[in-house]
């Protein structure tokens, strides 16, 4: 709204409509500032240490909002009595000053509010730590039950605060780290209960003490990590060293190589060689692993050697092109770039295959939990020798699973999935020894019910992590295949020749490297449009809305088409692309039908605009469908058809980028439709978000608050016994 005011054109002739529009914008800004400041003042009254700073910022914001409203009060300009009235037309610098003051004061209010939230989380964490210290030192069961009841309530409060914070985080990497830390705290709360009870029941048992100490240590680390994420800092000022995966290394390397098309001088050949060396060093994690198959090892080594040769050829042509920019040399450079990138794609595909096939085999083999079952049975029997034998087997299983997580991290494809792999590796690394100490305790005290219950809890954590790995593996495969983790049916491709008799005679072909280069720019534009559509659909509260679902489906299909232009993803041949274009056009037609249905819910004034846009969409989709179904022969004609399909898909996506915000705006105007809802006020039941079934990140939000509350209830029951 402010940008609209600042950028308005100073036309000598001003219509009544223009004057009214400017006044409406000014009033809207002032009203929005008023609502915002009211919330800020409420926060200030609840937090005395920041009350003065917050109040000053709120006063500044309110004053700036009122100034903007006065300067935009231009509806009465045509009246003689208003000649001396200062307005946006006579004092544009006044509006600019007021806008700057408003933005700086609003930012200050937001920063202060954020500091308060951070302080609440730190205070809650300190309470939890203090109670944990008491729990560690208790010597009687009755005292433990009373303190654990308090601890449970404090953990529930901490869970709510960190859940809200996790939803507010914009950085996906931080969000994943927060989810991992909170998952540790949830699982460890139950472990802490049974491990402490076992230690109290068997105070002289060394394995029980080791088991309990491990749980406390892990909880402290998780609490510390939450604070690091919230405050964006690390202890002693250390910088976080991010582990580099093969995927991220290859992605960065390819970006640098492809950048040579635009600029031959922006990096050195030594820089590029070093990047490749780092990637190939990481492939040694695969070639040195005892769990990598001989076939995968040989392929990885072969591709590593080929990558070095391709880079040498690229550097040679690149150096020549720097000295002499002839047409032939530039064409040779383009071929060298494409061959280098193609080799890196094949290397990426090979390490992905090695990691995921190992994971699939291991998860299948260990899903029966035979070792855990044997430990429980031999522990109850008090058979120390058998327990020792099975603990060795569990240690072997742990090493296999840890290695699996390390290899999966290299091919996870996104930073959040990388962090999930690291968290899984830590979980197996820590839980394995804890199961062993719990089994040893049970073997030493075979009649102890609490020791048996304790072993069950740790075994359940192991089984739960194995189950999570199956889900993680599916997500990694989705990202690799271009689905970006979305479980959309739209990516299912019809089989070539099934829906169109004309296609049976055509031989499916792939684009060669030269054709990929020609279509790269168009593909990149399509990629950017899919990002825009995704960000628009994320703004809708109701993700089940038909308009949103059609938009998401079209975005996913367009993304697959973009990947095709790079020689990646699910679409392997031109025939696959043409089929995808047909399905994309059909989905667009369905969206147009949904828009027609939605037009009945909007105001009469807005209906013509919406119907006009829907007709444009139908027209574009029909054009795409005709192009995709057209029969062509010959390499040149096929490429022309590919180019036309991508171009027309881009046109549809461009229109979709305009349609989604329009529909969103119309939904806000329409009342009682239930599609969107306003954000809750500062004090209004902030815990409501944790139970909203439609909100994203639902799994991470809940943190197991119910399970924590159940722990507290169980302890109260024990106390009564």
In short:
This protein has helices spanning 2-6, 16-46, 51-71, 92-137, 141-168, 172-201, 206-231, 246-259, 269-287, 294-323, 327-366, 370-381, 384-410, 415-444, 449-480, 513-537, 546-565, 574-599, 607-629, 635-669, 698-702, 705-720.
Draw up the topology in text.
Elements (H helix, E strand, L loop, with lengths): L1 H5 L9 H31 L4 H21 L20 H46 L3 H28 L3 H30 L4 H26 L14 H14 L9 H19 L6 H30 L3 H40 L3 H12 L2 H27 L4 H30 L4 H32 L32 H25 L8 H20 L8 H26 L7 H23 L5 H35 L28 H5 L2 H16 L1
Helix pairs in contact: 2-3, 2-4, 3-4, 4-5, 4-7, 5-6, 5-22, 6-7, 6-14, 6-15, 6-22, 7-14, 8-9, 8-11, 9-10, 10-11, 11-13, 11-15, 12-13, 12-14, 12-15, 13-14, 14-15, 16-17, 16-20, 17-18, 17-20, 18-19, 18-20, 19-20
Main location: cytoplasm
InterPro entries: Alpha-catenin/vinculin-like_sf, CTNNAL1, Vinculin/catenin
Family: Belongs to the vinculin/alpha-catenin family.
């Amino acid at each position: 709204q402010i940008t609209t005011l600042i950028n308005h054109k100073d036309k000598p002739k001003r219509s009544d409509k223009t004057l009214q529009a400017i006044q409406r914008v000014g009033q809207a800004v002032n009203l929005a500032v008023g609502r915002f400041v009211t919330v800020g003042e409420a926060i200030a009254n609840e937090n005395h240490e920041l009350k003065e700073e917050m109040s000053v910022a709120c006063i500044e914001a309110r004053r700036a909002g009122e100034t903007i409203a006065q300067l935009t009060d231009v509806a009465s300009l045509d009246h003689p009595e208003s000649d001396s009235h200062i307005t946006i037309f006579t004092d544009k610098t006044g509006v600019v000053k007021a806008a700057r003051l408003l933005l700086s004061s609003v930012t200050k209010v937001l920063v202060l509010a954020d500091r308060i939230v951070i302080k609440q989380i730190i205070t809650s964490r300190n309470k939890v730590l203090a109670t944990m210290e008491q729990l560690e030192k208790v010597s009687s069961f009755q005292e433990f039950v009373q303190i654990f009841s308090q601890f449970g309530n404090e953990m529930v409060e901490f869970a709510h605060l960190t859940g809200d914070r996790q939803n507010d985080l914009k950085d996906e990497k931080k969000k994943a780290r927060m989810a991992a830390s909170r998952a540790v705290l949830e699982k460890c709360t139950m472990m802490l209960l049974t491990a402490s009870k076992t230690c109290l029941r068997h105070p002289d048992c060394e394995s029980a003490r080791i088991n309990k100490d491990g749980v406390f240590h892990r909880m402290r680390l998780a609490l510390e990590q939450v604070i690091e994420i919230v405050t964006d800092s690390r202890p002693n000022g250390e910088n976080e060293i991010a582990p580099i995966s093969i995927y991220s290394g290859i992605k960065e390397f390819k970006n640098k190589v492809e950048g040579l098309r635009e600029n031959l001088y922006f990096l050195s050949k030594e820089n590029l060689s070093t990047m490749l060396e780092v990637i190939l060093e990481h492939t040694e994690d695969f070639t040195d692993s005892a769990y990598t198959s001989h076939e995968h090892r040989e392929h990885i080594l072969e591709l590593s050697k080929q990558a070095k040769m391709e880079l040498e050829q690229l550097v040679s042509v690149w150096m020549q092109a720097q000295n002499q920019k002839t047409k032939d040399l530039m064409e040779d450079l383009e071929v060298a770039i494409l061959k280098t990138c193609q080799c890196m794609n094949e290397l990426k595909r090979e390490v992905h295959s090695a990691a995921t096939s190992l994971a699939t085999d291991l998860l299948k083999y260990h899903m029966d939990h035979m070792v855990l079952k044997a430990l429980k049975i031999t522990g109850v029997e008090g058979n120390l020798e058998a327990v020792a034998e099975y603990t060795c087997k569990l240690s072997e299983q742990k090493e296999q699973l840890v290695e699996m997580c390390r290899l999966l991290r290299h091919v996870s494809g996104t930073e959040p999935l990388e962090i999930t792999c690291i968290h899984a590796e830590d979980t197996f690394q820590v839980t394995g020894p804890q199961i062993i100490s719990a089994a040893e305790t049970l073997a030493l005290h075979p009649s102890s019910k609490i020791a048996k219950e304790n072993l069950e809890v740790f075994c359940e954590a192991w089984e739960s992590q194995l189950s999570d790995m199956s889900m993680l593996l599916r997500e990694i495969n989705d990202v690799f295949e271009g689905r970006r983790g979305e479980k959309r049916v739209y990516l299912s491709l019809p089989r070539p020749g099934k829906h169109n008799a004309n296609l049976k005679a055509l031989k499916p072909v792939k684009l060669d490297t030269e054709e990929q280069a020609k279509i790269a720019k168009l593909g990149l534009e399509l990629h950017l449009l899919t990002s825009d559509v995704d960000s628009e659909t994320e703004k809708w509260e109701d993700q089940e809305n038909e308009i949103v679902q059609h938009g998401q489906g079209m975005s996913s299909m367009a993304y697959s088409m973009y990947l095709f232009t790079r020689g990646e993803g699910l679409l392997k041949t031109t025939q696959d692309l043409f089929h995808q274009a047909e399905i994309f056009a059909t989905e667009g037609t369905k969206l147009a039908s949904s828009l027609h249905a939605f037009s009945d819910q909007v105001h009469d004034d807005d209906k013509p605009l919406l119907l006009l846009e829907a007709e444009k969409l139908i027209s574009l989709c029909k054009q795409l469908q005709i192009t995709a179904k057209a029969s062509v022969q010959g390499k040149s004609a096929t490429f022309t058809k590919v180019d036309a399909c991508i171009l027309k898909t881009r046109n549809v996506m461009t229109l979709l980028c305009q349609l989604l915000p329009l529909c969103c705006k119309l939904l806000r105007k329409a009342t009682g439709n239930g599609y969107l809802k306003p954000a809750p006020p500062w004090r209004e039941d902030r815990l409501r978000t944790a139970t909203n079934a439609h909100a994203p990140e639902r799994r991470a939000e809940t943190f197991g608050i119910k399970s924590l509350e159940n722990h507290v209830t169980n302890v109260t029951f024990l106390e009564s016994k």
